[in-house]
């Protein structure tokens, strides 16, 4: 046993399974934590325990929160007439960091997939439709990833909503702010060219 | 507040300060943990708490352990006649993974540094000398890093031990196993050339 104790070894293994980490980076992290065991490490253990105990999904939108309704769904200043549909909570957080959307969200928790047998019910699409009917929603923004599954899901939802008479929009494709043309993929460049606008 | 709750945000900040992680990777890790909050996350919190509570330095060698003596110092099959001196616990673990040294260790916890005012007492060098005198040590291997501070510390210890009549050795420099000459720095290549051996 090279690494101190069984617990330390188990900790390194567990850490090494986190996304983006491996055995080497996990060892480095665990050693630094042990060096700061009375401060940083204890604090981290307590926070992890608290977040594990308190976290749950917002009953309305599926965002991660520590109460029945997330901060966004319980904020009266956020427009209930606009719902932005995202694949997962990471996307919701990313849009919130953008700080320009003032409506509400709906987290699908994945995309439709015939291969993985994920249907509309698994993604809470009936719940989304119910929400749209009951809350007088004017516009639904489908902010799904530009992958095949993401776009299939977007089309599926758009078809239903168009029949319901709700405005459906998608995020614009184009050159990222600060992006260099030379480094962009061909698909993005032609999308940006097709959607060119008058200056 | 984009990220769920104050606790989640504090957790992301704390995670993002670990070596090799930043805000983006910390967010990804925390989201994955929350997804597995009843399993992986709770387990991680418990392990961190246990390791933080139980970890301490081995009273003999300075290795991280959960008792007064580490597994190496309390293993009667490990040769007490050889002591390998390392800068920190990460180096000890690395040598143990190599699985070819069967003696004992001594962790300095740093290197001599005039700039940072780190003297021999701060590194427990008197304790090392006492250990060498009392335990009938035949050979001391100085496995310190090939940095200026590491080599200064090695020379300081070697001078004292030579006066005490103990054999002092250092790790060989040369081409790493599996290494390609083209990618090696000039210093390593000339060291390997100077220490060339008959085949």
Automatic annotation (TrEMBL), chains A, B:
In its UniProt record, which GO terms are filed under biological process?
Answer: DNA recombination; DNA repair
Query: In the record, what terms sit under GO molecular function?
Result: DNA binding; zinc ion binding
Keyword DNA repair listed? The answer is yes
Report keywords, A-Z. DNA damage, DNA recombination, DNA repair, Metal-binding, Zinc, Zinc-finger
What InterPro entries has UniProt attached to this entry?
DNA_Rcmb_RecR, Rcmb_RecR, Rcmb_RecR_Znf, TOPRIM_dom, TOPRIM_RecR
- C4-type zinc fingers: which residues? 58-73
Q: Where is the Toprim domain?
A: 81-176
Highest taxon of source: Bacteria
Q: What does this protein do?
A: May play a role in DNA repair. It seems to be involved in an RecBC-independent recombinational process of DNA repair. It may act with RecF and RecO.
Give the record's family classification: Belongs to the RecR family.
What name does the UniProt record give this protein?
A: Recombination protein RecR
Q: Which organism is it from?
A: Paracoccus seriniphilus
- What are the top taxonomic ranks of the organism? Bacteria, Pseudomonadati, Pseudomonadota, Alphaproteobacteria, Rhodobacterales
Instruction: Give the gene that encodes this protein.
Output: recR
């Amino acid at each position: 046993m090279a690494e101190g104790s069984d617990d330390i070894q188990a900790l390194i293994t567990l850490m090494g399974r986190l996304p983006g980490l491996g055995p080497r980076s996990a060892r480095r992290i665990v050693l630094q934590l042990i060096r700061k065991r009375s401060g940083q490490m204890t604090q981290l253990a307590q926070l992890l325990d608290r977040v594990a105990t308190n976290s749950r999904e917002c009953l309305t939108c599926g965002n991660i929160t520590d109460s029945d309704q997330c901060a966004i769904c319980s904020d009266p200043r956020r427009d209930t007439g606009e719902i932005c549909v995202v694949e997962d909570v990471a996307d919701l957080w990313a849009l919130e960091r953008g700080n320009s959307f003032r409506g509400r969200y709906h987290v699908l928790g994945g995309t439709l997939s015939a291969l993985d047998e994920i249907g509309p019910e698994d993604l809470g699409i009936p719940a989304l439709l119910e929400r749209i009917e009951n809350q007088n929603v004017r516009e639904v923004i489908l902010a799904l990833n530009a992958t095949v599954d993401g776009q299939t899901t977007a089309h599926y939802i758009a078809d239903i909503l168009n029949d319901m008479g709700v405005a459906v929009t998608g995020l614009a494709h184009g050159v990222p702010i600060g992006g260099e043309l030379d480094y962009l993929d061909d698909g993005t460049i032609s999308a940006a060219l097709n959607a060119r606008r008058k200056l």
